[in-house]
Amino acid sequence: MEQAGAAREPFRFSTRLSLSELTGLRAATVGELLALVREVPGSCIYHHTHRFLQQHQYLSPEPPNDFSYWVTEVLGDKDLGERLASIDVMQFATIRALRDGIAATIERYIAENPLVKMKLAPGNSEFHFVKSVSFIIPTGLVARDLGEFAEALGRATIESIYYHVFEARLRLERGDNDFSNWIEDSVGDAALARSISRLDPYTYTMEDLRRTIIRLVERRTEVPRAGAR
Length: 229
Hints:
Elements (H helix, E strand, L loop, with lengths): L5 E22 L2 H10 L2 H14 L10 H8 L4 H8 L9 H18 L14 E19 H10 L2 H14 L6 H10 L2 H8 L8 H16 L8
Antiparallel strand pairs: 1-2
Helix pairs in contact: 1-5, 2-5, 3-4, 6-10, 8-9
């Protein structure tokens, strides 16, 4: 197999710092939840579908989103909770599309069960909308070919991997993860790019995802990875 050549443009690893901010918006019923899901900033939708993943990046598989948890545990509606939990985030390329998918799921359930719309959350257990604010920071890690990429990926933090895989595809609307985009556009290896793109990152821990991508790169290039974890 041919050794991987140099990329047209180097891959520069970035990382992110994330802050959570209260919006002051809250829902006490499924009807109010639906109305606010339609209106809140996209950073809220992202936060409530990725919060647990960001905070517990060593756990797998992905736990339910916050909407599912609140509907199930607070309102006691397991049927709607299961429908919300079953939403496959990988099917959506943008936050707008994900928002529409969540809203459509709630709308269909209300149409089938009209009385659920007004069921009130007990006490002070409303759903509080929070938004996720990210700050992107360069790491200094640079890869000029696939061999350097595999080595750098072995040294990158899980926050950096998270940024390039999750935020780049969905929140920044780049269409795919940054790794696949670079490998296809700059390295010119469409087959390897597709192999990485086909991975469902929501079913991996960040460490497992790191190892899986590195194995794919190494098998493609036959370049041993020096100093990898």
